[in-house]
């Protein structure tokens, strides 16, 4: 397991696919492979994916792979701890699914995994202002539900987490589009970002969805909801009854249920 290096994987992505096939029994769809290849070679990646198309699973595989290949600190941040924990649990389940991989873990808690080689995966909530997570440092920053993450928190709290890593620090933004925030700019305006776009047609083509389910969703959801959830479209200002700035000022991130 230690014979494979990050540089080898960067040079030949088929080694990565063979690795995750063997150790994780994970056989990625073509769009998941493109995302994994982007993550392994680029420092800025945005995943603009339709709902339930496998983005969290793909990020979980990449995160675990990086931590195995070399000492790496990964921080997963979402608006709430529950959302961050959801991805963290996928990573933990993936690791525990293989005894050889699980043997690489030195410590497990509800919010952190520590590998014997020094790698760490930490799950954090940003909350409404991000005050409680200032001061962390990481090699890879994963912003989950980036479409609803506040610009000020991303710019003043999250991005500085990789400041000391120079050109090696990595930011991965994933989510379903909503307002035209930093996630929108990363997807359409910032040339540093490699963008992997996945829409419902991709999911139907590989069998992640079936056509009947999509037809049901078209009938049940409004046009805006369907475009957002399954066509991975950002809401156009002309389609909104209320301006996005007003919605932002009237919204607050909080937990409906206590966190355990």
Summarize this entry quickly.
The protein is α/β, with parallel strands linked by helices.
Question: How do the strands and helices of this protein lay out in sequence?
Answer:
Elements: H1 6-11, H2 13-24, H3 30-41, E1 44-49, H4 55-69, E2 73-78, H5 81-96, H6 99-102, E3 105-108, E4 112-115, E5 120-125, E6 140-143, H7 151-158, E7 170-175, H8 182-188, E8 194-198, H9 200-206, H10 211-220, H11 223-230, H12 244-250
Parallel strand pairs: 1-7, 1-8, 2-5, 2-6, 6-7
Antiparallel strand pairs: 3-4, 4-5
Helix pairs in contact: 3-4, 4-5
- Annotated CATH homologous superfamily: P-loop containing nucleotide triphosphate hydrolases
Shape: globular
- Widest sheet: strand order? 3-4-5-2-6-7-1-8
Helix percent band: 40-55%
- Taking all Cα atoms into account, the compactness measure Rg is 18 Å
Helix-strand sequence? HHHEHEHHEEEEHEHEHHHH
Structural class: alpha/beta
Domain count: the total is 1
Q: What is the CATH class?
A: Alpha Beta
Q: Note the total helix count.
A: 12
What is the second-level CATH architecture? Answer: 3-Layer(aba) Sandwich
Q: Summarize the biggest pleated sheet.
A: 8 strands, mixed
Uncertain residue segments:
237-242
Count the strands? Answer: 8
Tell me which oligomeric state these chains represent: single chain
Mean pLDDT: 89
CATH topology descriptor: Rossmann fold
The separation of the N and C termini measures 35 Å
β-strand percent reads 15-25%
């Amino acid at each position: 397991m230690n014979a494979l290096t990050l540089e080898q994987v960067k040079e030949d992505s088929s080694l990565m696919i063979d690795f995750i096939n063997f150790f994780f029994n994970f056989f990625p769809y073509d769009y998941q492979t493109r995302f994994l290849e982007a993550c392994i070679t680029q420092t800025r990646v945005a995943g603009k994916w339709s709902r339930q198309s496998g983005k969290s699973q793909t990020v979980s595989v990449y995160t675990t792979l990086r931590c195995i290949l070399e000492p790496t600190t990964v921080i997963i941040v979402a608006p709430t701890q529950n959302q961050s924990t959801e991805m963290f649990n996928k990573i933990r389940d993936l690791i525990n699914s293989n005894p050889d991989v699980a043997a690489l873990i030195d410590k497990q808690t509800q919010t952190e995994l520590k590998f014997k080689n020094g790698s760490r995966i930490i799950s954090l909530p940003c909350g409404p202002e991000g005050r409680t997570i200032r001061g962390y440092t990481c090699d890879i920053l994963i912003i989950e539900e980036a479409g609803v993450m506040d610009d000020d928190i991303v710019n003043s709290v999250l991005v500085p987490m990789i400041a000391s890593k120079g050109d090696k620090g990595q930011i991965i933004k994933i989510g379903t589009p909503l307002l035209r925030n930093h996630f929108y700019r990363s997807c359409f305006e910032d040339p540093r970002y490699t963008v992997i776009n996945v829409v419902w047609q991709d999911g139907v083509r590989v069998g992640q969805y079936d056509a009947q389910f999509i037809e049901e969703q078209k009938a049940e959801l409004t046009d805006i909801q369907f475009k957002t959830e399954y066509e991975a479209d950002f809401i156009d200002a002309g389609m909104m009854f209320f301006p996005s700035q007003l919605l932002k000022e009237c919204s607050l991130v909080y937990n409906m249920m206590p966190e355990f």
